[in-house]
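Exercise 3.2. Students should predict the tertiary structure of the chain below and write it as structure tokens, then compare their answer with the key that follows.

Predict this chain's 3D structure.
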Amino acid sequence: MKGEASSARRRSRRAALQALYSADVHERATGAPGSPLAALDALAEHFELAPGARAFAEELVKGVAAERAALDARLVAVARNWRLERMAHVDRNLLRLAAWEILFAGTPPAVAIDEAVELAREFGDDASPRFVNGVLDALVRSAADAVAPERAGARDPGASAGARGPNESAGARGPRSGA
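Answer key:
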């Protein structure tokens, strides 16, 4: 049963990627924004997608569309020496899709990265799997680095002013193990 569920989710991701790709190619060719939801509807006319898989694909497409500017900014920040315009259409949209799942949908990073790499093998060129894996790994590390100081402060009762012991100064604490 678990294999069937993951297979349905992979079909959803595949359909979402195709819709995002189609809208992106349309936008680059015409200068007018493409509609990923309209592209998903067109895909559904030609390919069977179970209702649950269709719903997940729509969630993915809507999420990426709604957060595209934020996703693009995060991806540009971690994709060293790569502008979005220079990335292959497939790679760019795979990165957006997986980044949305990691940053906004709560998908475990290992799952989102693995799924993106598999789709890169299927739809991208020979270099796509390594490129997608590297950029997403950098994204996850940057997100963890951004969250770590917040979490450390929240768990550290001495982080607030006035909560230090009598022999502690403001800069006396070093890194905490396990944080």
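Discussion points: Residues 155-179 have pLDDT under 50 and may be disordered. The helical segments are 2-30, 36-46, 51-66, 68-78, 89-105, 109-123, 128-155.
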